[in-house]
Amino acid sequence: MTTLLQIKNLKANAAGKQILKGIDLEVNAGEVHAIMGPNGSGKSTLAGVLTGREGYEITDGSVLYQGKDLLALSPEERAREGVFLAFQYPVEIPGISNMFFLRAALNAIRKHRGQEELDAVDFMALVKKKLEVVHIKEDLLKRPVNAGFSGGEKKRNEIFQMAVLEPTLCLLDETDSGLDIDALRIVADGVNAMRSPERAMVLVTHYERLLEYVNPDRVHVLAHGRIVKSGDRELARELEKKGYGWIEQAAKTGATA
Amino acid sequence: MTAAETSLARTGFEALWAAKHERVRGREPSWLLQARENAWALFAERGFPTRADEDWRSTNVAAIANTAYATPSRSLDAKAVQAACASVAVPGSVRVVLVNGRFEPSASDLGAPQHGLTIESLSAVLASGPETLRGHLASQRSTVNAFSALNAALFEDGLRLRVSGRVAIERPIHVIHVTTGPGAFALHPRLVVEVGNGCELELIESFVGAAGVGTAFTNVVQDVRIDDAATLRHVRIVEDAVTAQHVGMTRAAVAKDGRYASVAITRGGALVRNDLYVTLDAPGASCALDGLYALDGSQHADQHTTIEHAAPHCSSTELYRGIVDGKSRGVFYGRIIVRHGALKTSAEQENNNLVLSNEALVDSTPQLEIFADDVQCRHGSTIGQIDEAQTYYLRSRGIGADEARRS
Ligand SMILES: Nc1ncnc2c1ncn2[C@@H]1O[C@H](COP(=O)(O)OP(=O)(O)OP(=O)(O)O)[C@@H](O)[C@H]1O
Ligand SMILES: [Mg+2]
User: Fold this and answer.
1) Relative to the alpha carbon of A43, which ligand is closest?
2) What is the CA radius of gyration of chain A?
3) Which residues pair with A93 in a beta bridge?
4) Which residues contact A29 (CB under 8 A, 6 or more apart)?
C-alpha cells in the first residue's frame, strides 16, 4: 500500500497563537479517513495548512504528499498536484461564472499534467456527465461562483468541482453540515462514487450520519490541536453516544502523565 | 491648481498659439481664422479646468497644464512607426495612419477605392475646398470645454471620412494615431465623420506610441454625423505609451432611425480623459455605448459620457466595465438626459468595476436627468473587490495567483 499523505508532529500558529500542537497522521491511497472533534479544535486549520492558506505560521513538523514536501508548494501547485479541499464555507466570487472558473481550474491542472486543455465544447460534455452525480441544475453553472447559492447548493457545488477535477487527495471540511437528508445522501453518493484505489479522502465531520453512508477506514478525534484518539468505525458511534468529554479528559491526563 | 499655475500653463500654450496664428494668418480663409481666434479666446478666458469644476472633480489635469509642450517633430522614424502600426493592425481593414496628428500616406494603405467612401486628410481639404468644412469648423458645437477649444484653435491636420449613396462599406477603416519623437509635445488631431442616409461604416481608431516616444499629449476631437437610417460602428482603443496624456472629445449626432455603436477601450496612457457626447436628434435614433478600461500602475482614466435623448422613440444602451489594479484610478461618469417631449425613451446604463488591489480606486457616477413622461430608464453601478479569501479559493483550485487576481 502506498502512503499518500504523511503528517509528522505538525505545529502551526495563527495570529501568534498555537493552534496545531503536533499532529501525526498517515493516509494511504485507497483509504477514507474521518476526523471528528469539538468546535475550535483545529480541524479547518489543518485543512488550511495542508492547502497553503495564508496566515498560518508552521513552527514544527513536516508534511509529505506522494513523498514530496507539500508545505514547500504554493496553493495552486498543490491543487495541480491533486490536492483538493471542499470548503466548510465556500466563498462567493461575483463576476466570474462557475463554468468559466471550473474550466480555468481544470485546464490549469491538465496543463500541469501535460494534457491538452479542453475547449468549451469538450468541457461542457464532461460537465454534463458530472452534473448527474451531484444533481445540480445546469443553470447554477452560468451564475457567478457560489453567488446567491443556498447553503446546500454551495456544498454540492464543492462536490461537483471535486468530481470534475478528479483530485488524488480529497479533503472535505464539514461538507455534510447544513444539508438536508436528501442532499446528505447525494454528497455521500458523490464521495462513494469517487472512492478508488489511487485516491484518498479525509472527511472532517461532526455527524456520525455521514459515516453511515461512507464507511471510513479510520476515525480520528482532533482535540486541542492534537489527534487524541484513533480507531475504526466503532469510535464514531461511541462519540455520537458519549460526546467528546471523556476523550478530552483522557487526553489531558494522558498529556500530563 | 493655483491661479499662478493656471496662468503659467496658459503661457506655455500661448507661445504655441502665437506661432500657429502667425503661420495660418493670410493662408487660411478668414472664417477659419476667426473660428480659431474665437476658440483661443474661449480657452484663454477659461484656462484649464480645475478640480473645482464639477465635470473635472475626479481628474486633475495639472500634469498637462504644467508641461511646456513643443510642436511635434516632423521627422519620422519610419521603422518605429511601422512597428507601432503592426502592433495594432486589424486584418482586412483600410489603414489610415496619422503620425503625430498628420496624415502619413507612406505608412497608410488605402487599398482600392470603395464606392461611396471618401477618405481625405483635413489639410488636403483645407487646401482644396475649405468651404465644405465650414459647417463643422466654424460652429461652436465642439468647443465645449477648454481642451476642445484648444483643439479648435491649434489643430493642424486630421481626417475627413464621408460615406454617401446608401452603401454599406465593407472593409472597416482603421485609423492609427501614432505618436513618435522625444521630449514633451502636443498634438490636436481632428476627425470629421459623415455617414450619409442609409449608409453603414465601421471606424476603428487606435492610439499608440512608437518605441521611445517622449511625453505625448494627444488632444483629439471627433465630430460625427449620422444621417437618416445610417449606422456607424466606432471603436476607439487607447493603447498609448505609459507616459502619454490623452484627452478626447467625441460628439455624435444621430438622425432619424440612425444608429451609433461605440466601443471605447482604454488600456494605455498615464492620464486619459475621454468625453463622449451623443445626441439622438430624431425618432428612431439609437446608440449603444460600450466601454472597457483596464488600468494598472499609476494610470488614471476618466470616461465621461452623455447621451441626450432629444426626440421621442429613441433608445440607448450603455455598458462600461472597468478593472483597476496597482495604484490606478478609474472614473466613470455617465449622464443620460431625456429632454422635454422625448416620450417613449428607452435608456439603460450600467457600469461594473472590479478593484484588484487595495490602492486602486474607482469613482462611478451614473446620472439620470429626465424631463419627459412615459420613459423607461434604468441605471446601475457596481464596484467589486477580490479579497484574500476569494484569491485563496481560486488558487486552491489550481488557478495561479496572478490569474486568480485577473480572471
Ligand atoms: N487566522 C486565525 N487567526 C486567529 N485565530 C484563528 C485563526 N484561524 C483559526 N483560529 C482559531 O483557531 C482555533 C481552531 O479553529 P478551526 O477553524 O481550525 O476550528 P475547527 O476545528 O474547524 O472548528 P469547527 O468545528 O467550529 O469548524 C479557533 O479557536 C479559531 O478561532
Ligand atoms: Mg472548521
Assistant:
1) 1
2) 18
3) A145
4) A1, A2, A3, A4, A168, A197, A198, A199, A200
Residues B211-247: pLDDT tens digits? 999 999 999 999 999 999 999 999 999 999 889 999 9
User: Contact B398/A105, CB-based, under 8 Å?
Assistant: yes
* Inter-chain residue contact A95 with B389, CB threshold 8 Å: no
Chain B residues closer than 8 Å to A96 by CB: 407
Does residue B336 fall inside a structural domain? Answer: no
Domain span at residue B13 reads: 3-282
Distance of alpha carbon B44 from the chain centroid: 23
The Cα of A26 is separated from the nearest Cα of chain B by a number of Å equal to: 22
- CA–CA min distance B313, chain A (Å): 33
Cβ–ligand 1 distance for A226 under 6 Å, the answer: no
- A34, A23, A48, A41: which is closest to A207 by C-alpha? A34
Instruction: Determine how β-strand A17-28 pairs with β-strand A144-145.
Output: unpaired
**3-state secondary structure (DSSP) of residue B182:** coil
By C-alpha distance, the chain A residue nearest B384 is A94
The residue among B394, B402, B403 with the most chain A CBs within 10 A of its CB, best to mutate, is B394
Residue B206 CA to residue B90 CA, distance in Å, equals: 10
Quote the DSSP letter at residue B109: B
- The CB of A74 under 6 Å from ligand 1? The reply is no
**β-pairing, A56-65 with A68-69?**
antiparallel
What are the pLDDT digits (tens) for A79-116? 999 999 999 999 998 778 899 899 999 999 999 999 99
Q: What is the DSSP-derived secondary structure letter of residue B71?
A: P
- Burial status of residue A240 (CB atoms within 10 A of its CB: 0-12, 13-18, 19 or more): middle
Q: Tell me, what's the ipTM?
A: 0.93
| In the predicted structure, residue B8 carries a pLDDT above the cut 50 | no
Q: Which of B99, B154, B162 is nearest to B135 (CA)?
A: B162
State the pairing for strand pair A200-204/A218-223: unpaired
Residue B401 lies in a domain: no
B208 vs chain A: nearest CA distance in angstroms?
A: 30
Look-up of cell digits 435608456 = B347
Identify whether B245 is part of a domain. yes
From the CB of residue A70, how many other CB atoms can be counted at a distance below 10 Å?
22
Return the half-sphere exposure (C-beta side, CA atoms, 13 A cut-off) of residue A166: 10
Distance (Å, rounded) from C-alpha B85 to C-alpha B401?
A: 33
B80: in domain: yes
Cα B249 to Cα B339: distance, rounded to the nearest angstrom: 22
Ligand nearest to the CA of A23: 1
Q: Report how many domains make up chain B.
A: 1
Whether residue A15 has its Cβ less than 6 Å from ligand 1: yes
Question: Residue A107 phi/psi, 5° resolution?
Answer: -70, -35
**pTM (whole model) above 0.80:** no
Of the candidates A74, A80, A91, the beta carbon closest to that of B393 is on: A91
Among A200-204, B56-60, B321-325, B353-357, the minimum mean pLDDT is found in B353-357
Q: Residue B7 pLDDT more than 60? A: no
Cell of B209: 506610441
Tell me the ligand closest to A172's alpha carbon.
2
Percent of chain B with pLDDT over 70: 95
Q: Give the distance from CA B110 to its chain's centroid.
A: 23
Res B5: pLDDT:
43
